[in-house]
Write a structure and sequence with these properties.
Helix content: 40-55%
Order of helices and strands: EEHEHHEEEHHHHHHHHHHHHHHEEEEHH
CATH architecture of one domain: 3-Layer(aba) Sandwich
Largest sheet: 6 strands, mixed
Radius of gyration: 25 Å
CATH topology of one domain: Rossmann fold
Strand content: 5-15%
Number of helices: 19
Length: 521
């Protein structure tokens, strides 16, 4: 495993209050923050004892950083502020003294809250340092880049969620391996690029991309089994393969490895929703947003999913709308479903038109869509797990082959998969409202094979490591086009919410207007 390319030294906090109690608090906080920063694989943190030893030799902070081999310095102070304390921190580039980030934290309960503050500071620093390194790496010849710099640039490429971004990212990851063949994150990046195409962009290569994504992730795990990002990629792949019994314990391990990494926690929020635990998922999403209060837009795709699974549709829609249009292919469908549950038919029609347009452009590549293709696509790809009361939270490994589907034909049209019969059925039939060719919603009873209930029966959705694909940022799973059965995400029996048929009847009437109805399909 390659050493982190980023090294940081935390200088002892200045005690501006002058009291022995604050001095002890400052020293304790510095040690806690050093330990928290060290949990981020991208950061190499100089041990506190080494920093203290270097300070005893006099010299400027910059010369001390050079002696320690630190590229960045974090310094700060504690002082009295009213009845409490104020913590000031600033991050600088050691060689130039350039200020990169500053933070201020107040509170009478500062001693009790220092673990939480340390986690927030660590997340902020990880983001700022990565951004600084990406910016400097772009200005240098590719041949001079270190393995870690190639990883950061490649990750930025695959997070675009486009075939072109995946190809460019693969180039960076392969270059990282030429620099360091044992760099786990380079293999993880290769897995992410193939995962993007497997889960969204390369239907004609479904089996090939699945194999390449999985094999690269296994190579990464063999090199660094303790990297939470590597484990997160493997968990997502296992969920896509319907290996939920394997994914569940892995997700629990990831929580233990990175309890305060916002990027990991928001991914876990999506994955625990797919496992059927939206309550835990919502807690993790809130924690991720606390740790990173100004997150990248894709965070909101993950954060909205647990609310929808919990039937908190207003909150789900409010969070989902924080993400910009075009970020995730099926995000507009998710918004449409939430809007329909809330009786906002005009908004639902608008979101559906957006979904159909994005799907036609990015998935169907401009060809005419087959009837009800959107539904079949979502049933084919998304890994949501439907459970009856008391049922196991995953599928037995011997059922995995039965849960696979066939890839679409090479003509590009998505055909309905013909799954083999699993050993047991979770749910055999669910009434779901479908879209007619004319664009009106029509309630039909679609006989869904029990395979589909292992996914998101009567719903619309997908995961990606933008997932999206996130990591590839994971992309939101979404309910069926406007209304239908309740989310198959909770460990309760699934009954059709009959009160929603009023919404369906409205949608099939003229209340949406001919123009709106025509734009939906």
């Amino acid at each position: 495993m390659a050493s982190p390319a980023i090294t940081l030294a935390l200088l002892p906090l200045d005690n501006l209050a002058g009291s022995p109690e604050v001095d002890r608090l400052a020293k304790g906080f510095a040690y806690d923050l050093t330990a928290e920063l060290a949990r981020f694989p991208s950061l190499g943190v100089i041990a506190a004892d080494s920093v203290v030893a270097a300070l005893s030799e006099n010299g400027s902070p910059e010369s001390i950083a050079a002696r320690l081999g630190a590229a960045y310095l974090l310094r700060g102070s504690l002082r009295r502020f009213g009845e409490g304390l104020r913590l000031n921190l600033q991050l600088t580039e050691a060689a130039t003294g350039r200020h990169l980030w500053g933070g201020r934290y107040d509170g009478a309960e500062l001693p009790a809250a220092q673990d939480d503050i340390a986690a927030k500071v660590a997340n902020a620093l990880a983001v700022r340092v990565d951004q600084a390194l990406i910016s400097s790496s772009r200005r240098r010849p590719p041949a001079s880049l270190a393995a870690f710099e190639c990883w950061l640039l490649g990750l930025e490429c695959v997070q675009r969620g486009t075939a072109e971004g995946d190809a460019e990212g693969l180039g960076y990851f392969e270059q990282a391996l030429r620099t360091d063949p044992h760099y786990a994150r380079a293999h993880a990046g290769i897995s992410l690029a193939h995962f993007n195409e497997w889960s969204c962009q390369a239907w004609s290569k479904w089996d090939e991309k699945e194999r390449l994504a999985y094999e690269a992730a296994l190579r990464a795990e063999a090199l660094d089994p303790g990297d939470p990002l590597v484990q997160m990629i493997l968990a997502k792949i296992e969920q896509y393969r319907r290996e939920f019994d394997h994914a569940g314990p892995r997700l629990d391990r990831i929580r233990a490895l990175a309890p305060n990494d916002a990027n990991v926690l928001i991914q876990l929020a999506g994955s625990y929703t797919y496992q059927g635990d939206p309550e835990l998922a919502s807690t993790l999403a809130l924690r991720a947003l606390e740790l990173n209060p100004i997150p990248p837009p894709w965070f909101y795709c993950y954060a909205a999913l647990p609310y929808f699974a919990l039937r908190r549709y207003a909150e789900a829609l409010e969070v989902a709308l924080r993400a910009p249009p075009g970020l995730v292919v099926d995000a507009p469908a998710y918004r449409a479903a939430a809007a329909a549950y809330l009786g906002r038919d005009a908004d639902a029609a608008r979101f559906l038109a957006e979904f159909r347009s994005d799907f036609s452009r990015r998935i169907a590549c401009g060809r005419e869509l087959a009837p009800e293709e959107l539904l079949r696509w979502t049933l084919h790809v998304n890994p949501l797990l439907a459970r009856r009361r008391g049922a196991r939270s995953g599928l037995h490994s011997q059922n995995l082959k039965a849960s696979r589907t066939t890839p679409p034909p090479r003509t590009g049209e998505f055909s309905r998969p013909t799954p083999r019969r699993p050993r047991y059925s979770i749910l055999s039939s669910v009434p779901v409202p479908l879209l007619s060719r004319e664009g009106a919603f029509k309630p039909e009873s679609l006989r869904v094979p029990s395979f589909h209930t292992q996914g998101f029966t009567g719903a619309i959705g997908r995961v990606g490591v933008n997932s999206s694909s996130h990591h590839h940022r994971a992309q939101t799973s979404t309910r069926l086009l406007v209304a239908g059965c309740r989310p198959p995400l909770c460990s309760r029996l699934f009954e059709l919410p009959w009160h929603l048929w009023d919404t369906v009847r409205k949608a099939t009437s003229n209340r949406l207007g001919e123009a709106s109805r025509g734009s939906v399909c």
